[in-house]
Specification:
Layout (H helix, E strand, L loop, with lengths): L5 E6 L4 H15 L8 E7 L5 H12 L10 H9 L1 E5 L9 H6 L7 E6 L6 H10 L7 E5 L7 H12 L7 E3 L7 H11 L13 E9 L8 H26 L8 H14 L5 H7 E7 L1 E3 L2 E3 L17 E7 L9 E7 L6 E8 L18 E7 L3 E9 L7 E9 H5 L6 H11 L8 H20 L5 E4 L6 H8 L6 H4 L4
Helix pairs in contact: 1-12, 6-13, 8-9, 8-13, 9-13
Catalytic activity: D-glucose 6-phosphate + NADP(+) = 6-phospho-D-glucono-1,5-lactone + NADPH + H(+)
InterPro entries: G6P_DH, G6P_DH_AS, G6P_DH_C, G6P_DH_NAD-bd, NAD(P)-bd_dom_sf
Keywords: Carbohydrate metabolism, Glucose metabolism, NADP, Oxidoreductase
Length: about 500
């Protein structure tokens, strides 16, 4: 679908997300043949900057975040010509006149309001947009996470934003859904017949979804202390990935058909009780250790940290889906900071063979598994047992690997590029619907309540490890192991 002319209004235009991700993504899109001449970017911020000063900030902060092989000075110069800057107080409706003057007076023009700001500003900005007469029929609003701190907060955001924009105008963004490997998971499942007969409880042993970071909280202590790993990563990224793995085939690829199936998964997640929480949820916090050979402080010793903080930097959960397809198949979700490696992956592990016909104990056979790598390199691995070269019949685990960079030999779209393109096209498939958001919070909220009532510290784990030992025990009780623990030694 070809793009039409648009005004893209970026609230928080001087912020970290804008400079690291959004501006580089818009620049990359501007180099495409289908990008319209009339596509303009209007950055909005509280700084009293001129347009020239803002462009200088883009050169200093955004330009270095563009990959070297994608940076073209002529294209960057042309992109800068599209950019304007407006200074206003987003919370004060009386300051929106400069924005109104910067926008083109054409109700048929696509307008995008991207709110790269804290969620407590969402309602006020949307109301001020409406009071300024800028909520046109072709307007769209993009909401960045976190979308509330709990179910009540999420419902309030949905209600407040919904007073100004219809559901079809609201784009709740989760950048993990824009990753190439996630798109290929959909293609793998619904574009091939090979896995569909096996994609069920009779053949799959377990599913593991991991998002691990080597980094600590950095300069985000203020945000992270009020969020924690569960709100920051599990409630959105991990649950969205679980939905795509577990959803039934939609009737077609239209937005609501896909999102209907994801919603069914969220509603089928088995609810936690206080007793099951103790058994199936692990909360951790990193202490001092070494990452890549460099000594790093514990969370409580990071700059501006609360020395008695109980905020979790690691969470592992055993989830179960009460449906015909998935009954009895555990889904293990985990995420953490200061982990042993930087990776995001989905591991679909199949059941073991029932009997060995070889002169080799069945315990030496690794189950077949499909590994979908999201980062650092996107690709697919299918793990199989194969005969080693030479005399005799000795089997060993081998990989069939698909590396997207090597296979397709063409530039990839980064996650934000794809999602921003979908926003400009009005394509909602990869964005959460309000009932999806609320269903995710309904499942997560008992964990938060339990932790609030519990008078215990998180379990401490050494920075540079794979998290608390209790996370291994969580999966070990089912006779299973996390992928890195199950891999045979070389």
């Amino acid at each position: 679908m070809a793009l039409t002319d648009f005004d893209f209004v970026l609230f928080g235009g001087g912020g970290d997300l804008a400079m690291r991700k959004l501006i580089p993504a818009l620049y990359a899109l501007s180099r495409g043949k289908g990008f319209p001449e009339g596509g303009r970017i209007i950055a909005v911020g509280r700084h009293d900057w001129s347009r020239e000063h803002y462009l200088e900030e883009l050169d200093k902060q955004a330009k270095p975040n563009i990959e070297e092989d994608r940076l073209d000075e002529g294209a960057w110069k042309a992109f800068r010509e599209r950019v304007n800057y407006v200074s206003l107080n987003a919370s004060d409706a009386g300051t929106y006149q400069p924005l109104k003057e910067a926008l083109r007076d054409d109700d048929k023009l696509t307008r995008v309001y991207y709110l790269a700001v804290p969620p407590n500003l969402f309602a006020g900005i949307c109301q001020n947009i409406a009071e300024a007469g800028l909520a046109t029929p072709n307007a769209r609003v993009v909401l960045e996470k976190p979308l509330g701190r709990d179910l009540e907060g999420a419902r309030q955001i949905n209600a407040d934003v919904g007073k100004v924009f219809s559901e079809s105008q609201i784009f709740r963004i989760d950048h993990y859904l824009g990753k190439e490997a996630v798109q290929n998971l959909l293609a793998l499942r619904f574009g091939n017949i090979l896995f569909e007969p096996l994609w069920r409880r009779e053949w799959i042993s377990d599913v593991q979804i991991t998002i691990a970071e080597e980094l600590g909280v950095g300069n985000r202590m203020g945000y992270y202390e009020s969020s924690g790993a569960l709100r920051d990563m599990l409630q959105n990224h991990l649950l969205q990935l679980l939905c795509i793995v577990a959803m039934e085939p939609p009737v077609d690829g239209t937005p609501d058909a896909v999102r209907d199936e994801k919603l069914k998964v969220l509603r089928a997640l088995k609810r936690f009780t206080p007793n099951s929480l103790v058994q199936n949820v692990v909360r951790g916090q990193y202490k001092s250790g070494h990452v890549d050979g460099v000594a790093v402080p514990g969370y409580r010793k990071e700059p501006d940290a609360n020395p008695q903080s109980r905020t979790e930097t690691f969470v592992a959960v055993k989830a179960e889906i009460d449906t015909w397809r998935w009954s009895g198949v555990p889904f293990y979700l985990r995420t953490g900071k200061r982990m042993a490696d930087q990776l995001a992956e989905i591991v679909v592990r199949f059941k073991s063979i029932p009997h060995s016909i070889f002169n080799q104990p069945i315990s030496s056979f690794q189950p077949n598994s499909l590994v979908i790598r999201l980062q650092p390199d996107e690709g697919l691995n299918l793990n199989l047992m194969a005969k080693t070269p030479g005399d005799g019949m000795r089997l060993k685990l081998v990989d069939l690997e698909l590396d997207f960079r090597e296979t397709f030999k063409k530039p990839r779209m980064e996650a934000y590029e794809r999602l921003l393109m979908d926003v400009l096209r009005g394509q909602l498939t990869l964005f959460m619907r309000s009932d999806e958001l609320e269903a995710a919070w309904e499942w997560v909220e008992p964990i938060l309540h339990f932790w609030d009532q519990e008078d215990n510290d998180p379990l401490f784990y050494t920075a540079g490890s794979w998290g608390p030992g209790a996370a291994s025990a969580l999966i070990g009780r089912d006779g299973l192991q996390w992928r890195e623990e199950a891999l045979p030694e070389e």
